[in-house]
Design goal:
Layout lengths: L11 H4 L15 E9 L5 E7 L5 E6 L1 H13 L7
Antiparallel strand pairs: 1-2, 2-3
The structure holds zinc ion.
């Protein structure tokens, strides 16, 4: 199944960073989520992202409300299969 990149839910500097593994080297990272998603005691949610091309990692913390907005997207566009 084709994955949709999650760039639009990440901060601008992460979204706009060039991916060294892209064809021209000037395309943006192709961010997908990973299975590392953790609720924190303060209600925020930690999510680890990975670029599907160069495997760079990015950690982002969402408010509970933002996470709920993006939850389906995050769950449907994960790089690693769940065990
Ligand atoms: Zn990349």
């Amino acid at each position: 199944m084709k994955k949709t990149k999650l760039n639009h839910i990440l901060p601008g500097d992460i979204r706009e960073e060039d991916c060294p593994a892209s064809q021209t080297g000037k395309q943006k990272h192709f961010w997908l989520s990973t299975s590392m998603v953790e609720s924190r005691v303060d209600g925020s949610v930690f999510v680890r992202f990975i670029c599907s091309r160069c495997d760079k990692l990015h950690d982002e913390v969402f408010t509970r409300q933002n996470f709920q907005t993006y939850q389906a997207l995050i769950e449907n566009n994960r790089k690693f299969a769940e065990v």
